[in-house]
Write a structure and sequence with these properties.
CBS-domain, Alpha-Beta Plaits, 8 helices, two-stranded antiparallel ribbon, 8 strands, 2 domains
Length: 208
C-alpha cells in the first residue's frame, strides 16, 4: 500500500514569517500536532506543538520580545524528513519508528502535497492485515520458499475453507505464517497441516 493512498491531502501549513501565536492557534483550531512550514510553495521546515511549548518556557530576551511575537522560522526544524506518495506505508512506518516522529510531510519535489501520521499508518496496517475481520487465526512454521506457501494455502483451500489473510514473517531460518481463516473447525485444519509436515506454532516457539 502506498503513502499516497493513506495520506491527508488537505494539509494545514504555516509560513516562516508567521508568529508562534498564529501557529499555536492553527494547531489548536485543527487539533493537530505539527505544521509543515512553506515559503512560495516549497517546504522549508516543520514546527510542532512541542517546539512552541519549549520556546514558551525559555527566558524572554529583551531583543526578541514576547514568545508569541517570535516567528516560526526562528524555531522550526529546517532539515525535514519526508516521504513521497510512491513510498510504501511500511517504509513510512520504519522511518517514523526509527526517527521517533509523529508524522511525515509527503512531497513531490519540494512541494507539499500531503501529510501522513503514525495513526494513519497504523490504520492502514490494521486494514491490510484484516485485524478486525472475522475468522480463526492460526500460526504455522514453514520453510522459506514460495512452494511451501503455495502448498499451505492449497491444503486449506482443498478443505473448502477461505483464507482471509496471510502474513509471512521471518522466524530464525523459517517463515512464520499468520493466517486468518473463515472456519470454526480449527482442530481439523491443524490436523491436516500437521499430517502434511507443517509445524503449528505454539507460544513457546516464539519465546526462545
Amino acid at each position: 500500500m502506498f503513502v499516497g493512498k493513506r495520506m491527508t491531502k488537505k494539509v494545514i501549513t504555516v509560513g516562516p514569517e508567521d508568529t508562534l501565536e498564529q501557529a499555536a492557534s492553527l494547531l489548536a483550531g485543527h487539533r493537530i500536532h505539527r505544521l509543515p512550514v512553506v515559503r512560495d510553495g516549497r517546504l522549508v521546515g516543520i514546527v510542532s506543538d512541542s517546539d512552541i511549548r519549549n520556546a514558551a518556557v525559555r527566558p524572554v530576551q529583551p531583543e526578541t520580545g514576547p514568545v508569541g511575537s517570535k516567528t516560526v522560522g526562528e524555531i522550526m526544524t529546517r532539515e525535514v524528513i519526508t516521504v513521497t506518495p510512491w513510498d510504501t506505508v511500511e517504509d513510512a512506518l520504519l522511518i517514523l519508528q526509527k526517527k521517533r516522529l509523529g508524522a511525515l510531510p509527503v512531497v513531490e519535489g519540494s512541494r507539499v502535497i500531503g501529510i501522513i501520521t503514525k495513526a494513519d499508518v497504523l490504520a492502514a496496517l490494521v486494514e491490510t492485515l484484516d485485524i478486525e475481520g472475522i475468522g480463526a487465526r492460526i500460526e504455522v512454521l514453514l520453510p522459506r520458499d514460495i512452494a511451501s506457501v503455495r502448498k499451505l494455502v492449497g491444503l486449506i483451500s482443498e478443505k473448502g475453507i477461505e483464507v482471509r489473510s496471510i502474513v509471512l514473517a521471518p522466524h530464525n531460518d523459517r517463515f512464520a505464517a499468520f493466517l486468518r481463516l473463515v472456519t470454526i473447525d480449527v482442530p481439523s485444519v491443524k490436523d491436516t497441516l500437521r499430517k502434511a509436515g507443517f509445524t503449528i506454532a505454539e507460544l513457546e516457539d516464539f519465546l526462545g
